[in-house]
Amino acid sequence: MATNGTNGTNGINGHTNRFDPHFTKHVIDLIGPETAPRHKEILSSLISHLHDFIREVELTQDEWVVGVNYVNSIGQAYRKNRNEAWRICDVLGVESLVDEINHKIVTEQGISPTSSAILGPFWSPDTPFRDLGASVVQDMPPDGQLTYFHGMIKDVETKKGIPNAVFDMWQASTNGKYDSFDPENQSKHNLRGKFKTDENGRFNFYCLKPTEYAIDTSGPSGDLLKLMGRHPNRPAHIHMMVTHPDYIGVTAQLYPNDDPWLETDTVCAVKDDLLLNFTPVENEPKDAVLDCEYDVSLLSKRYKPDSTMLMGNAAGEKL
Amino acid sequence: MATNGTNGTNGINGHTNRFDPHFTKHVIDLIGPETAPRHKEILSSLISHLHDFIREVELTQDEWVVGVNYVNSIGQAYRKNRNEAWRICDVLGVESLVDEINHKIVTEQGISPTSSAILGPFWSPDTPFRDLGASVVQDMPPDGQLTYFHGMIKDVETKKGIPNAVFDMWQASTNGKYDSFDPENQSKHNLRGKFKTDENGRFNFYCLKPTEYAIDTSGPSGDLLKLMGRHPNRPAHIHMMVTHPDYIGVTAQLYPNDDPWLETDTVCAVKDDLLLNFTPVENEPKDAVLDCEYDVSLLSKRYKPDSTMLMGNAAGEKL
């Protein structure tokens, strides 16, 4: 892996283990006895992997200085609605990985309910309940495609519908903005709604076919994307948070299966069971032009009685 | 290693490999074909180790948010003379590790010249040459201990002295400050000097016995030290940069062997061959109260013709 100039030149540094084998342990052992065990565990692992990374690539002095300056630039670029550390985590797949670690469920029988995906910062605790069959489209954009969205929330083991489960959904309008960040075009609660399933576990409502948008690339996270040769686009998505007192909730994003950015999502949050199929319809009662059916599977809380939902985050920006 | 609440509870997540085994590769594979090979190598290793760290400790959502906020705080705390990203690297041993990777030399015969240690930001390109036997102490602090410092710069293979080698030294005064950062107490070039070895490779001059100081703990690097249960003290040290046209130069810090902070240096920059022994003397010609002898070993440049010295850095603060 060595690519810098200190190796193999005229017979110096021929010893492959020329680096002090005790150095990383020395740094970890500096952690004092009063540090909480969990902090010690995290810091020890962090130091170990950080050193391994540096040794693996044999980081040069100049490269290290570039890294120091980059880390400083992250906080310097921090603004309201521009949390660069958060965005960089997303670009590097960190938020999705943390989401998976904390929310992925596989039973001993190998059964998994619907996958979770990152919440993002636009969930609202104030979203109103709407009647089944209602529309969340309060302000129809000219380029919006009205969609009849329906499905069932079911028990992943029994496959039976779960009555009185809540399907809480939110989505951006066709301009890529959510209601509260777009007051000139959208009224409060536009493209948001909570729906309670019927006695068969079924729900249905009208929404827009979601549209993709690019994330802001003006900060260090944008520089990282460019360095990696990546585009800034997120696939279109509808957010959902599904809850029921007796079931482990799931928060996810649902993506049209024909979206061009599924494989290369900027924030790496696409999973195979979160894809939506939109089909054209004609003469629909409310003039919807598309139909989309999606079922959600939940696992009983008896598997995890202490289950809690992540009910918000600190990013304050669109993901 | 799992300590969060998602494991082994009532039989869920019993599958040890429940995390997507392809996820890290997926993120790495997003790197485009136009990214420079070295950038790709560094980013791939960084992503791989970052993900391994997160999986190893099973980072919780809350812990991750703490990390995001901490990373943002680093750049937000950046000030002139307070480069927090740099300091955090020092606390985590990163600068010392990078120094070792870039400067440690072991010949195929297993011979090593004098070790290097981090340069720090206080080297000056303007330091004057002084005659052998001169004093660098222009402004004697009341609590200073004048020291006669002498030694030989020799070829690590032949053990012979190297004439006309340059021993460039600098040190803080007893208040922990370097000349240019302490204009009210120190004149320009105080406690700095360049000395050229004589025909036997010998050098000698007068300086102060160095005194330890604590690094500033007002920023995120100080918070990290506290979290790790560590003190902020650096062992006392004299900086040296030794050069000769025909030899690979060495930059290092030299520490009194009785310093209480050698084992727990905040920046992890102490090495066994960089220790100084100070012995009391009486009736010394210039009234020095201590004597210190230290020899430096250099390796011929024919082992590494492209050798360059790091001639400055961007930290702008005391290390």
TrEMBL record, chains A, B:
Signal peptide bounds: none
One Gene Ontology MF term: ferric iron binding
UniProt GO BP: catechol-containing compound metabolic process
Residue ranges of every copy of the Intradiol ring-cleavage dioxygenases domain listed in the record: 119-298
Keywords: Dioxygenase, Iron, Metal-binding, Oxidoreductase
Co-factor requirement: Fe(3+)
Pfam assignment, any one: Dioxygenase_N
Keyword DNA-binding: no
Taxonomic superkingdom: Eukaryota
Keyword Transmembrane: no
Domain Catechol dioxygenase N-terminal: 37-107
Family of this protein: Belongs to the intradiol ring-cleavage dioxygenase family.
Protein name as it appears in the record: Uncharacterized protein
